[in-house]
Each structure stands twice: as C-alpha cells, then as structure tokens.
C-alpha cells in the first residue's frame, strides 16, 4: 500500500510509454522487507554497541558495507557483509512480502523476452536468498552491491545495468523502477526514465528527486506488445497533484 500522501491523488489517466529495457530496484520495489531489515540492523547494532534507532537511521539508503564503515572498519569487507546478509532471509524472511503487482509484471517481461535486470544495494547472496524464498522470477542479469565502487545515488549501478542488458548506448530508452529518492537520482543520472513507486517514500520526495511518473505500486503497471520503439508499458492511476 502506498504511503499516505498530501496534496493530490492517484487518479491520473492511463498512459502508455515504450521502452527498450527495464531496470528494477529490489527492496521496496519488488519486495517489502522492512521488518526483516529492521530486525537485522537491530541485531548488528547490539553487537556493535550502537543504538537501534541510530543504526537504522544511518543504514537507510546505504549499502551494508558503507554503514559498517561508519562504526567498525574491520567489518567493512565483502566476505563479512555477504555472510551477514545471507542470513537475513532464513532468520527474518517470514515477514517479507511481495509488492503488489510485482510477480505478474516480472512474469510478463520474461514471457515477452524483454531485457530486464535487478539493480540493488543488496549483496548477491541476499538477492538470491529473497528470490528463492519468495519464488520470484530471477532476472537474466543483475547488478548487486559488490559490483560497483559506490552505492546509490551514484549512477554507476544503473549505467552498469544498462550495459548488462545490452542498452548502454546513449539514446536507448530504458525505464528504471524505484521506490527511493537516492535510487531515482541514480536512474536519472544514468540517462534513464524513472517510474517512482510510493511504497516507502512520499510522492513529493520522489518527484523532487526527478521521477518522471509516480504510481502506488506495480499493480498499476502492465506490459503491452512490442513495437518499433520497444515494449509498451501501461501506467495507471498515476499521481496528480492539486494546485
């Protein structure tokens, strides 16, 4: 369900736009793991002697390796980060839920043979753990936390995502789907159009970050047929602000 919003409503007329490829964030876009991640960081915070509220606040929008660097540089290495993130689905996965519309949308892209990938701040171990736990369609390619030197809002992750789906050339129309302002900025910085989902952040924060459109969740997004410019994407119930 979308967050409570202010001056406007999700009543925009349906629009269809064509794209040659698609890049999705994972947490907050495909799945909701808020409770699981909260429990995880509370445990790590206790081990580090950091208050739960502080470590939760400072971990938002950061890769785990970047958060750990703030408190204990000895733990800011990929071996440790992959190990602790691999434990999140088996320990706390009972609280994870699919974002509405995620499964049918990903299945439609797979059936259409459209180029798509996940671009996430999770490690590859955590990505695999969540997809396996929820039995969601796995992407042909992905970009995980280990693949780039800097996390979102740095656009390197989405630039790499474009390359991995074969659409790195300037001018190729690629759609990024994101729930967080940092991810929206990363997508725009990589030269992509961005669809914001109001699942974890307010509409204004997403629009201020540069989102081209905002909808409640993936139940408002449908895959159509392929034309000269790519696959048609129907967006319904888009956010419309009030004057």
Describe what you observe in this structure:
It is built from 10 helices and 13 strands. It is α/β, with parallel strands linked by helices and 243 residues long. The radius of gyration is 18 Å and the shape is globular. The model has no long low-confidence stretch (mean pLDDT 95).
Strand order of the largest sheet: 7-6-3-8-9-10
Q: What's the end-to-end separation, in Å? A: 25 Å
**Major pleated sheet:** 6 strands, parallel
Taking pLDDT < 50 over at least 5 consecutive residues as the criterion, the unreliable ranges are none
Give the overall silhouette: globular
* Count of beta strands: 13
Strand fraction: 15-25%
User: Level of helix content?
Assistant: 25-40%
Question: Count the helices. How many?
Answer: 10
Name the average pLDDT: 95
Supply Rg.
18 Å
The sequence of SSEs as H and E is EEEEHHHHHEHEHEHEHEHEEEE
Q: Structural class of the helix and strand makeup?
A: alpha/beta
Give the SSE layout.
Blueprint: E1 8-10, E2 15-19, E3 21-24, E4 31-32, H1 34-48, H2 52-59, H3 64-69, H4 78-86, H5 88-92, E5 97-98, H6 102-111, E6 116-119, H7 124-134, E7 141-143, H8 156-164, E8 174-178, H9 181-189, E9 193-197, H10 203-209, E10 213-215, E11 221-227, E12 230-235, E13 239-241
Parallel strand pairs: 3-6, 3-8, 6-7, 8-9, 9-10
Antiparallel strand pairs: 1-13, 2-12, 4-5, 11-12
Helix pairs in contact: 1-2, 4-7, 9-10
